[in-house]
Amino acid sequence: MKRLAILGSTGTVGEATLDVAARHPERFRIVALAAHASHEALLAQVVKHRPAVAALADRAAAAKLAQQVASARLPTRVLGGPEALTTVATLPEADAVMAAIVGAAGLASTLAAAGAGKQLLLANKEALVVAGSLVLEAARRAGATVLPIDSEHNAAFQCLPPGGAGACPAGVARIVLTASGGPFLRTRREELAAVTPEQAVAHPNWRMGPKISVDSATLMNKGLELIEACHLFGVAPEAVDVVIHPQSIVHALIELADGSMIAGLSQPDMRIPIAHALGWPARIASGASRLDLIQIAKLSFEAPDLERFPCLRIAQDAARAGGTMPAVLNAANEVAVAAFLGRRLNFAGIAGVIESVLQQHEARPVRSLDDALAADAWARRRAHAALDTRQAAGA
Q1: Residue 341 pairs with which residues in a beta bridge?
Q2: DSSP string covering 231-281
C-alpha cells in the first residue's frame, strides 16, 4: 500500500487526486493533507479520509481547523504556518507526495519532498520554472522519483523512451506541447482589453483554478510548461514547440530522429495523468470516460498567434535567457494575474507588466534557493511598481 501526502489538497488537482485514490482503497492510504487557508474544505477532507496530519500555511486558519478537529474528536494532528507544508512534504510515513500548490508558494515544500527522497508527483510547475536545477539535483542526490502531473508533460513522459527526469533519451528530436488556446482563441486583439475575469476563467475544456485558468487564457501557462519541459526532459528551449489544439485531446507529441512522431491522447481530465503517476509503473483506473475517436471526429492544429498572445513569446525569451529570468517571469506573472483577477489591471495589461519587469532584469545563475527567492522577491517589487505606474497614468 502506498502512503500518500497531498500538498494543495483543496485545489482542483488535490481533489482529483483524492478521487482517484478513493477508487483504490486497497492501494492507497492518505496520511497527510495540506492547503493554504481553506479550513472548512480541509476539515471535510479530514472527516472523510482521516489522515494522521493536516496542515494549513495560514496560522489563523490552522487554529480554526485545530478547534474543529478537536471538537469532532478526530485523530488528526493539525499543523500551522508555512513551515508546516515542508513538514508534510518530508513526513517519514509518506511514500509519495503530490505537489499541487499553485505558484512559487509551493517551491520550498516541493524541494523538501525531492530532498527527502519521496516519489514526487509534480503538479506545481512553478517549482521547476523558478528553481528547476535545484529541485532535480535534490531529487538525484536523494534518489527521489519525479513523475510529472501536468497533462502535457505526463503525456510526453509516457511517449518518451525510458529515462530519468532531467535527461532526454537518445533519438528524440523535438517535444511538442499542445495548448487549447483558451476562451479567447478567436477574440480580436482590440477586444482583449475589455474581457472580464469571469470570462477568462471560463476555460472551454478543463476545470482549473482561477490563476491557472487566466494563465491558459494568456498562453502564459504554456510558456511556463515549456520551461518545465526543458528541465524535466533535459532539452533546450529550441527543442520544445507549442501548437494550438482546440480539442485538448492530444496533449503532447514526441518527434524522433527518424521523422516519426508519437502522440499522447486522452480526455481532458486531470484524473488520467494523476492515475498514471499514482499507479506508476502499473496502470490503474482513473474514473475518466473513455476516448471515443469517432465521436470526436476531428483533431486540428495551428500555430499560436504571438501578437494576440505575447505572454508565450515573453516566456520563450525568458527560457532562452535562463538563470534567474524564469523566476522573474513567474513572479511578475503571479502579481499581474492577481491584479487582473482583482480588477486592477485589464487582460491586455498582463503581458505589459510582465515584459516591463523582465526588461529591467539581468539574468544571473541560480546556485541556491536564496538566489531563486531573491529573484522572485525583486520581481514582485518591480511588478507592483509597474502596476502603480500604470494606475497613476490611468492605463
Answers
A1: none
A2: HHHT--GGGEEEEE-TT--EEEEEEETTS-EEEEE--S-THHHHHHHHHTT
Distance of CA 271 to the CA centre of its chain: 15
Q: pLDDT of 372-392, one tens digit each?
A: 999 999 999 999 999 998 887
Helices (H) and strands (E) in the chain, counts: 16, 11
* Percent share of the chain, pLDDT over 90: 89
Maximum C-alpha span of the chain: 64
Residue 254 CA, distance from chain mean position = 21
Output the CA torsion sign for 350, 351, 357, 363: positive
Looking at the chain, how many residues does it have? 395
Set of cell numbers at residue 291: 476516448
> Which three three-digit cell numbers place residue 256?
524522433
Which H or E run includes 314?
Answer: helix 310-321
Question: How many other CB atoms are found less than 10 A from the CB of residue 108?
Answer: 19
> Which of 329, 40, 26, 393 minimizes the C-alpha distance to 9?
40
Cα–Cα dist 178/73, whole Å: 48
Number of neighbours of residue 246 by Cβ within 10 angstroms: 19
Indicate left, alpha or beta for 179 from its phi (over 0: left) and psi (-120 to 50: alpha).
beta
- Considering only CA atoms, which of 382, 385, 383, 379 is closest in space to residue 327? 379
In this predicted model, what pLDDT tens digit does every residue of 170-196 receive, in sequence order?
889 999 999 999 899 999 888 998 999
The model's pTM is: 0.93
CB 180 within 8 A of CB 245: yes
Please state, in angstroms and rounded to a whole number, the distance separating the CA atoms of residues 77 and 62.
11
